[in-house]
Design a protein that fits this description.
By secondary structure, the chain is an alpha+beta fold. The chain is built from four helices and four strands; from the N terminus they run αββααββα. It has a four-stranded antiparallel β-sheet. Strand 3 and strand 4 form a beta hairpin. It is globular and about 45 Å long.
C-alpha cells in the first residue's frame, strides 16, 4: 500500500501582497483605515501594512488576529463565543502565553485544503475587519 502526498505551494510574498492590497482596498472603499498582517504557515510575518491614519494599536491587533486564526485554523469571528465566560474555551486566552486575540478579523488561508497562512485586519469594527479579510482571501483564489 502506498500513499502519495501532493505538495501544496506555500504562501508566497506575491500571495501576501495580493492579500494586503485586497484587504486595504476593501477597507478604503468602506472609508475605514486599517492595518493588515499576513503570516505564513509557520507564523512568520510575510507582509504588513498600516494605513498612516489607522490607530496605532491596529498593527498589534491585526497581527494577533492573524496569529489566532493560524494557530486555531479558524476565523476569529467563529471563536468569539467560545472564549466568553460560559464558553468551552473561556480560559484559553489566559492559559497560554501566546498573542491570541479573539476578535473578528483573522482568517486562515488555505490552498488545496491545506493551511498555508493567515491574514489579520485591525482598525475597523470587528465585523468590518472580518469582511475585509474575507474579501482579501477571496481575491487570492
Amino acid at each position: 500500500m502506498s500513499t502519495t502526498t501532493t505538495a501544496v505551494a506555500p504562501l508566497t510574498i506575491q500571495d501576501a501582497e495580493i492579500l494586503v492590497t485586497a484587504a486595504s482596498r476593501a477597507a478604503e472603499s468602506a472609508g475605514v483605515t486599517v492595518s493588515v498582517t499576513v503570516l505564513d504557515a509557520g507564523g512568520h510575518l510575510l507582509a504588513f501594512r498600516r494605513d498612516d491614519r489607522a490607530v496605532l494599536i491596529s498593527g498589534e491587533t491585526s497581527t494577533r488576529k492573524a496569529y489566532t486564526a493560524l494557530q486555531l485554523n479558524a476565523p476569529t469571528a467563529d471563536l468569539v463565543d467560545l472564549v466568553k465566560p460560559d464558553g468551552p474555551f473561556h480560559s484559553l486566552p489566559t492559559a497560554l502565553d501566546r498573542p491570541l486575540l479573539f476578535i473578528a478579523g483573522g482568517i486562515p488561508v488555505h490552498r488545496d485544503g491545506r493551511l498555508i497562512g493567515a491574514i489579520g485586519v485591525g482598525g475597523g469594527a470587528p465585523e468590518q475587519d472580518h469582511g475585509f479579510a474575507t474579501a482579501a482571501v477571496a481575491e487570492l483564489v
